[in-house]
Amino acid sequence: MTGAALSRGGGGGDDDDASSVHSSPASSFRSDSPSPSHRRRRHALLITTRNVSFLAAVLAALCGGSITAFSLYGHLFQERLHYSQYQVNGVSSIASFSLYLPVPLFGYICDRYGPARLSGAAAILFGAGYGLAAGIYKYGTQSAAARPGRGSYTLMMVAFVLIGVGTCALYICSIATCAKNFGKGKYRGLALAAPITAIGLSGLWESQVGSRLLYERLPDGSRGDVDCFLFFIFLAVLLFFVSAIGFFTMKVIDEQELIDEAVEELERSGLLDGSAFSSSSVRPQSSYGTLQQIDPEPTQEDTETSRLLDATKHSDDNHDGDEAATFKKNQVLNAETRRFLADNTTWLFAAGFFLAIGPAEAFINNMGTVLKTLYPPTELQLAPHVSAATHVSVICATSTAARLIVGALTDILAPSPATQHFQFPSPGAPQTMLQRMRFSVSRVTFIIFFALLLSLGMAVLASGAVQNHGERFWIVSSSIGAGYGALFSLAPIIVTIIWGVENFGTNWGIIATFPAVGNALWGAVYSAVYQAGAAKSADRAGAGDSESDLFCYGSQCYSAAYWGMAGSVWFACALILWAWRGKGGWTARGIVI
């Protein structure tokens, strides 16, 4: 009898709270069967806990994407603190690195210790990060005339490292909570899209609060730029309390049952490589579900796996309660991580994500300076369509709509596998009756479509079609916003569909690290093109002061960079298509996607 069969009545949850919410498989096995009233009460408690966790995760995500409002105040670092474009890009890039690089570590922690601890850490990081940024900005504006661009820069970098790490922690715990609690449902794509959508929506409403409520008053009494000091204080307080709420409410329900079902399926698969528990009589080839008979003499890997299987099946004899559950959980998750890393399509998909998301984030972080290149400085104040706050809102709104739409459409139109765990079908395995009978559109088709939409916005900008025509910039911001939001919604859904939900935090963490490098790469390219254009503009104008070298006007400030970004997205589409339809890809392996 498998572990899953023993735990049907026991369920599982967050490691920290498992004993308080439900009994472990071992204790369930030893105790008498619960009465119907006890089962009803326990079921109601689990449903309530799951719904509260979902609401806490969505609330956290609804506030946690504050870093996407960087364009609202990024140009003020250049104007008020006298940072160069390289320095402004450095702040945004270090925040991006801090957002993405810890994702595998935080995903690992979330999978093994639960999301609540990450939410608690995010509260401290956000409070310290935005509090420090507020203080440094206030000091920097007062001392910038004496020490332009130098006095505050290092500490501002430190502040945005803390902000980026806090955003990473809150992001991972939010989406992992929803992915694991709703992995069995028919609409798991929509459930996962909810916090991802909320992340995008957070930048929309926070930028509106900053621009419409926390703004500077001009001498004539009209509304000016956002007051960075007040805005940073607002975000510090808000995110501290929202993350603290998540610390007490985010839980994963029935996690032990999820692990036991994964063990059952892995045993049934007969695979040893990475995520398998089977006898030593078979060894897998590199593709899913293909077995190869080997010499009866076991290898070292076979022996080790057999010991793991034996230890897992008989862990109740050697461990008590939660220790046995934790032992089994760690073995399954570690094995699935090795299987995930050994899959060549993992790296094709990760490379495609890197090449597509990096340019999009570089555009979002630098959009404020791009808008200021569209008109000569003397005409900029009169231009009605170059407000950074407006286009931040456009990006957030279209990103939010795209995330919800693709979450719902893929649940309805895309084929669904019969399992929520790691897929191990054989090539040519028959599809389910539902898949055979109804029209379906692969999730990969959706991701390619929205990647091309993303590249369209970059190509329009690169062509110079919006130069001196700020009223056309909505084409750029809306298409990039929609493509960016859809890709960030579809990518984690694809990870759960192909590689399962029990190790989602670790798997998605590995994939999500790549955009940080892409953002830094294309941000540096844009900065180089911008600074070269500023130098040419200054030479033509005969300006000799260093202040004029900071600013650029004209398509030469961005065109070459955005043609390169569009090409990067097109190459990303080719890599993802190869992972799907190429030799040894998902279609050839019988993966339902």
From TrEMBL:
Topology in the lipid bilayer: Multi-pass membrane protein
Gene Ontology terms for molecular function: transmembrane transporter activity
Coiled-coil intervals: none
Keywords for the protein's UniProt record, in alphabetical order: Membrane, Transmembrane, Transmembrane helix, Transport, Vacuole
Bias (Low complexity) ranges: 20-36
Any one of the GO CC terms: fungal-type vacuole membrane
TM helices/strands, residue ranges: 52-74, 86-106, 118-137, 157-178, 190-209, 229-248, 444-467, 473-501, 508-529, 560-580
Bias-annotated ranges (Polar residues): 276-293
InterPro entries the UniProt entry points to: MFS, MFS_trans_sf
Region (Disordered): 1-40, 275-306
Record keyword Nucleotide-binding present: no
Lineage: superkingdom: Eukaryota
Subcellular location(s) per record: Vacuole membrane
Family that this chain belongs to: Belongs to the major facilitator superfamily.
Protein name: Probable transporter MCH1
Species the sequence originates in: Coniella lustricola
